[in-house]
Amino acid sequence: MKKETTFGELKKSGYTERTISVELKQNLVAKIKDKQPAFEGLWGYDDTVVPQLKKAILAGHHINLLGLRGQAKTRIARNMIQLLDEYMPIVKGSEINDSPYSPISKFAKNMLAELGDKTPIAWVHRSDRFFEKLATPDVNVSDLIGDIDPIKAATLKLPYSDERVLHYGMIPRANRCIFVLNELPDLQARIQVALFNILQEGDVQIRGFQLRMPLDIQFIFTANPEDYTNRGSIVTPLKDRIGSQIFTHYPKTIDLAKKITEQEARLSDNDRKNIAVNELAKDLLEQVGFEARDSEYVDAKSGVSARLTISAMENLIAAANLRLIETDEEKTAIRLVDFMSIIPSITGKIELVYEGEQEGATEVAKMLIDKAITTEFEKLFPPIPNLEKAGIKTPYTDIITWFDSSDLLELNYTDTDAEFKETLLSIKPLVTLVQEFAGKRNEAEKLFCMELILWSLAVGNKLDRTESDKAFQFDSMGGQLFFGDN
Fold it and tell me: What is the pLDDT of residue 261?
């Protein structure tokens, strides 16, 4: 905490007042020159969004972040706190963070006129200089800007014409701070109009008052482009007053998506210690999100939030934790059969088009998982032929023949890892195929590959797959009839 407690001491310390735009700009420049990251945890934005953010800050602009849901718009806004000074001096007792060098409220002006250099100073930490409001349709001018407070007028015995009867809303209280207004199109047009003068001229208009209060605020707005037609719009004069509009986007690669999930998923230290998640499982999880964004059953205009895979990872870990509880084991690994536990994470985070509604959210979720499995399978193994000719052997012939001559295979969610491994290794042709195409993988990934092959053969209608509450069963579909005697 700073030591200066009066205005006089503050001046002697050499403190220099800066507007918030200059403060952000100079601190950004310092970080860039020191080779420090200006924004942390914004995976996939280094070459797109971050350079635009830097330019907007250097230009001193208010910013509108435009993008579909789950594209880290709020995280970007909150990241800007790190560009603020650690502490900011204000006139002690000021409701609107008055600077002692340039007070704007009657309270602060009167105190400085009366006490001068003895005016008490309070210090505000940068964590308290961030204000955030969700623009719901019920937000009114009083919430954002302020209103007359009759109780204050009665208590202080002041007439309504006195500025001191005003109750300041969130925006004046965010003076010299960052103010984030989320989902701007949801704000009624008449409320958006009330922001015009604050952004441009610095006027604060409350009831009959027209106050010249040059508020010093860094505004950041967030909006979903589809809101422009679905729920509301940003009125043109307000857009005209926002200096920079920056488009966000979803991660463009599986590796970037994995970093986001790893960063955001709420996993305990025990989870990370006792539950192994191999890289193939992580890739598959992210691929589900990519498939959802490309699916004909999912409304692409609505978007598929990054929260889908974050929640899905948490559900995967929960499924493994349940297995540990039921088997009284200490450690386990994520299995492909565990991926059925992510269905609730999918169904609540996708908007379906008409065809998807006809299929049903659960069925669409299962199709997305199947499609992701097929995509990941084809990165490692040869494609499964749609039609086979009798007498011509494929890489999968021996596996299908094994099922023709054996009982069905059951993979139980609650099997211990040792039991699960023993079941998979009992299919010798499956072991041979994995060794041929994925022999350099570690043991956990090889077992996952075995599941991947079985699942893909079922998706390709080469094996029969049935599901119960506790297990998946794989069985022959009459492989010898199609493959002939090999």
Answer: 96
CA atoms of 416 and 419, how far apart (whole Å)? 5
Between CA 358 and CA 269 the distance in angstroms is: 42
Distance from C-alpha of 333 to C-alpha of 149, rounded to nearest angstrom: 61
Instruction: Round to whole Å and give the CA distance between 94 and 50.
Output: 35
E strand or H helix that includes residue 479 = helix 479-483
Residues 429 and 292 in one domain: no
Total structural domains within the chain: 3
Count how many Cα atoms sit within 13 Å of the Cα of residue 262 in the half-sphere of its side chain. Answer: 16
CA nearest to 373, candidates 448, 295, 320: 448
Q: What angle do CA 96, 102, 107 make, to 5 degrees?
A: 45
Query: Is 223 domain-assigned?
Result: yes
* Stretch 171-196: mean pLDDT: 90
- Over residues 140-172, the pLDDT tens digits come to 888 888 877 777 767 777 776 677 777 788 999
In a domain, 438, yes or no: yes
Residue 345: helix, strand or coil by DSSP? helix
Separation of alpha carbons 3 and 123, rounded Å: 9
What are 12's two structure tokens?
């002697």
Identify the residue with better confidence: 169 or 261: 261
Residue 123 lies in a domain: yes
Q: What is the CATH number of the domain that holds 228?
A: 3.40.50.300
